[in-house]
Every structure is written in structure tokens, then in C-alpha cells.
Amino acid sequence: MEIYQLRAFVIIARERHLTRAAQILHVSQPAVSGQIKSLESELGLTLFERRHGGMELTAAGATLLHHAEAVLACAEDLTTAASTLTGRILGRISIGTILNPSFIRLGELINEILIKHPSLEIDISHRNSYKVLQGIRQHELDAGFWLGDEIPADLLSLELRPLRYVVVAAPSWVDRIDSASWEAIAAMPWVTTPREGSFYQLVESMLRCHGQQPKTVVEADQESTIISLVQSGVGISLVREEVATAAQEAGDLVTWGEGRATTTLRLIYLSSRENTPVTQAIIQAAGKIWNLEST
Asked: What is the pLDDT of residue 264?
């Protein structure tokens, strides 16, 4: 039995889909399938049933999943202990990013990590907040930037700075939004991130305060894409106030005076991995750059 087989077992159980599991593990789908078949053969048990739309754990698979997760956690603890004994942090750090790299001070963060730990390799994965959260929970990412004020119970965070958002539209929409009511604003097409994401929830929360909800939603992955779609007249959205102000001065966007929403930019990580050398390297570097404490 190999660690990589157990890792494949756990990831498939979480994703319930071979293709997604293969993408996370960075191997081919046949390779993942072969790993599971080998594990099943060694254990003498069927771990999954193929069903329409994905993979479902059998009763035996559900029972053994917790044991597999415990073994992987022990293997990670062993690696952590070895790193501590050598006095060096080796290996790879994966950080999920959102928004503009300069705005989140990404270059400063990476530089600070490498000054302290030059042997580390650093992977940067640009996503939206929801996918950063997913990546951290699936152990694809060690930490990541995230928008939100209600921290999930399994996470800890560094609170970096408050953010203020305003409602924006294309200049050609100025007559439509100039004197629009909240009801009219809610009825317009909204360009947001996927509904599970914190950005969509920020839009929904703002409208809910006025008894409304978005009627039509166009989903986009990143802030730059959202801004581009708004400028093209696809719909309206929330944009960081400083970005909206600069775009309005340049004649690229117009703002609706009534719409305001606030949230917080955070660096998040699993509470269960708070004391690992890799997580501590990120926390310490971010704390120095932002001069903030973990919360």
C-alpha cells in the first residue's frame, strides 16, 4: 500500500469524480483509476461505486476513509518533524491569490518568504475566493487570499485590510442607473463570481438589506474579467472603490451613488496546519509585510 494510493482514495471521496480528482493530483484519469483498483485489490474490498454523475463511496469505503485521512495526516506530521530537525524548511509552498497582485502585495510576500527560507519553492495559483477556500481544504494550497468577514470554523486568518465596493456600470448605462431604485438595480443583469463565492455573497447581502436579490447573473472568475464585462455593457457589478474611482475618471465606468458594500481582505489557512513550518513561514512573512496578527 502506497501513500499516493491513499491520497487518490481521499481526493476521489471528496470530489466524487475521477476527472476532478486527476486534475487535483496532476495525473491522468486512467492513472488514478489504476491506483484505486490496485488499492481495492490489496484490501480485498470495493471502495467506490460508479454512478451517473460520479463516484460514490461504498459502506466499506466510507468506513476506511477516516483511517486513510489519519494515515495521510501522520505522513505529513513526519515530514514536518523532519523539517524541524534539520532547521530548514524544504519543499514547496502553494499560495492562492485573488484580485490584483500588487494590491495584495504578493511580490513583497514572496520576497520575504524567500529571504527567510531560500530553499523553498513557491507555487502561485490565481483563483477566486471560493476556489482558494476549496484548494486549502483539499490541501492543494497551504494558504490563500480570501474575501469575507465570517471565518469558517476550520480556518484561521490574518486580517489584512477592509475593502469598500461600489456599484458600477458602463458609461452607456448612465441614464439607466442615474436615478434607478434598488428594485430596478436588482433587476439589471449582474456580473459576479460563481454563487458559492464570497464576492457573489457580498452582492447578495447588499441587495438583501434593501429587500432585493439579483435577478440575472453572469458569472466570471476574476476581477479583471468582471470589469471588462461591465465596461462592455454586459451588466453591472461591484468594484473596489479605488478601482472604480480611477475608471470613472478615465471615462471607462460610471458609479451608482446608492450602492456600497464592505468586506475584509484576509490570508486564510487551515487551523489544523497552523503550526506546520510551511504555514508558519507564510504567517510570519505576511505578518511582517502587513504588520498584523493572526486571528
From this structure: 95
How many angstroms separate the Cα of 234 from the Cα of each of 165, 217, 230, 269?
A: 19, 10, 6, 35
Short-list 219, 215, 223, CA closest to 182: 215
CATH number of the domain encompassing residue 277: 3.40.190.10
Instruction: Print the domain residue range for 214.
Output: 162-265
130-144 as b/e: b if 16+ CB within 10 A = bbbbbbbeebbbbbb
Once rounded to an integer, what is the mean pLDDT over residues 274-293? 88
Q: Three-state SS across 89-108?
A: CCCEEEEEECCCCCCCCHHH
- CB distance 254 to 168 below 8 Å: yes
In a domain, 295, yes or no: no
Cα–chain-centroid distance for residue 131?
3
Q: Are residues 157 and 277 in the same domain?
A: yes
What lies within 8 Å, CB to CB, of 272 at 6+ separation is: 154
In 10 A of CB 22, how many CB atoms?
20
Pair 260, 166 in one domain? yes
CA 140 to chain centre: 10
| More reliable by pLDDT, 237 or 23 | 237
The CA–CA distances, whole Å, from 227 to 175, 265, 279 equal 19, 19, 33
Residue 266 reports pLDDT greater than 50: yes
> Measured in Å, how far apart are the chain's first and last C-alpha atoms?
39
Residues 168 and 260 grouped into a single domain: yes
Based on the structure, what is the number of domains in the chain? 3
Q: Which of 86, 106, 130 is the last residue of a domain?
A: 86
Assess whether 113 and 24 both reside in one domain. Answer: no
